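Q: I have two molecules that I believe assemble together. Could you output structure tokens for the complex as a whole instead of separate predictions?
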Amino acid sequence: MIFTIARKEFVDAWRDGRFRVGAVLVLVLLAVSGLLARQQVERARAEREAATALERRNWLEQGDKNSHSAGHYGLNVFKPTSPLALFDRGIEPFVGTTVFLEAHRQNQTAFLPAQDATSMRRFGELSAAVALQMLMPLLVVLLAFGALAGERERGTLRQVLSTGLSPRSLVFGKTLGIALTIAILLLPAGALLGGLLLQVPSADAPGLWARAGWLAACYATYLAIFVAGSVAVSASTRSARTALTILLSVWAVNCIVAPRLASDVVHHFLPTPKLAEFEAKLAQDVQKGLDGHDSRSKSLEDFTRRTLQEHGKSRVEELPFNFQGLVMLESERLAAQVFDHHFGRLWDRLQAQDGAVAWAGLAAPLLALRSASMAFAGTDFEHHRHFARAAENHRRDFVRVLNEDLMNNARPGDHNYVAGRALWEKLPEFRLEPIPPAGAWRAARTEVLVLGAWLLASLGFLAFSAGRIRVGGE
Amino acid sequence: MLQAKKLTKRFQDRAVVDNLDLSVEPGEIFALLGPNGAGKTTTISLFLGFLAPDSGDALVGGTSVASDPVAARRQLAYIPEMVSLYPRFSGVENLDYFSRLGGRPHTRAELLALLERAGLARDAAERRVGTYSKGMRQKVGIALALATEAKGLLLDEPTSGLDPAASHEFSRMLRRLAKDGVAILMATHDLFRAREDASRIGILLNGRLATQLTRDEIKNKDLEKLYLERLRA
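A: Yes, here they are, computed for all two components at once.
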């Protein structure tokens, strides 16, 4: 019986010209956003590959110089673009894509794509994810608001229930019918996005399709929440107009008000330092130490004294290695403690903000979906932090190799020591190991739980409404 | 087949149906007359289980509507003043859908034959009902009663607004259904049709059955005069 009703709902929807126009518009938007994103992802990949190759060549061809000077010459590493960014660009346009690695400093990422945004690029930011997050619920509302309230107004509800059909079967049949209509509408869009993903050179990346599967499951859950909730509202209200007003209000709160409000509230209660303040504090602590008492110069004096005692020498020139190289290593170790402290706190705070927004998803499911979508697409803060951490580890390895070369190969007190291409080649290229799908799942588990809670609540509301349905007109 | 036992329904302390006792046997057409607000539509809704009685019971084929409305409705067909159909579906598609919901699916040929029996030509049956007149919609309602092989038929002002020819055709179908053993309860204002078709007539005033007339009594009395007298009483 439920399938008979579902089939009728499906056919009725497709025969409705207004729905067909809405469906075509959504499909065109999804297709255009997918194609534009594909172009952007491809361009970013090509630019990254070209820049990486140029950077490597510059590094290798920098000429002979002191190894520590090479540390100051530095090099850039570039953040790879997740293939699933063609679906959800996440925070990518608003965080940097490049980190300059050099001795003594942990730099932040630079070159935000959004800084270069043209008006056309802004249009390009309408990703397939945004279309699904904002426009599909609107289409669901337009499809479902009259599901029962409209039938009640037209009198078909009395006619239908007079056949001996149970109200529960009617409500669940209509819900299934609307869900099937939406699913079938999205099939071509899904096929197109899948096809675009297959064309991405890194489409064989491990776990990519598992992530895509999780994404699909999250969006299916989100739309199911809207379908069940909309039908429940339609079953509970006396008129289709009232149902539409309520559902459009819910849509506006979920899609427009909640994201801005959540962002403002979270920033109010979990503020992050301004960039200038952060960098000033960082520089101060590098010089004075984290406790503000042991200055860098005093720490290095103590280190010199301890080193001389360990080797039973009275002057650094008597040590069996280049002491300047060892000092550089120690200096990096001390600075790394400061960097870990400050960047760790900053990143933990940003992560706490993300966590708070995820829980705010209990008030508006879009917040949970948006975070889960970025996590599975590999474009969330966790993935950015993974890149920043990997870049910093690469910087520390790279500076350590250079300083060890100075320490072991330069004669004590030799200020004219130079290294060459043989050393530069020893430094491996930067490679970012992708976070496995299990890592993405861990990052998104709160959001997935919140979406699951919403689904259960909306199904509960649907069952409750089905049990209390009134035919009206009595 | 259709039985009301001390059936009472109140809205805000006002008894719209008040201790109503009536029964309609298979093959009978019981016409329920009464002014607006007399409780006719509420009585129909109580038989359909769309309203719960405050006291008493409505029975369909012995099944209490209040305790098992779905089972009661399975034995009924319902034709309101305007049969509500899905405008983007043809007559035959509507009939197919409703008869499936009623648990009596039919082949397309059978459905077309049922619609033809109800007086709807094949070309009209295949047109979308958005273009149908009221009379055509009522015919789909009759076809639905035929399709679901309902034992009881509830009608709420079924001929209101129909032209005389359509009204006559509708009555002919009703009599045929009654002849086939269907128990029919018809709420109406149409004294002429009630007199023509009904086996019995009940005049409902303030939710109470003020008068019941048998077929013989109907034949021998001026129904309009009697009805107006009852209203003034």
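A: One point stands out. The first strand of chain A starts at residue 75 and ends at 78.
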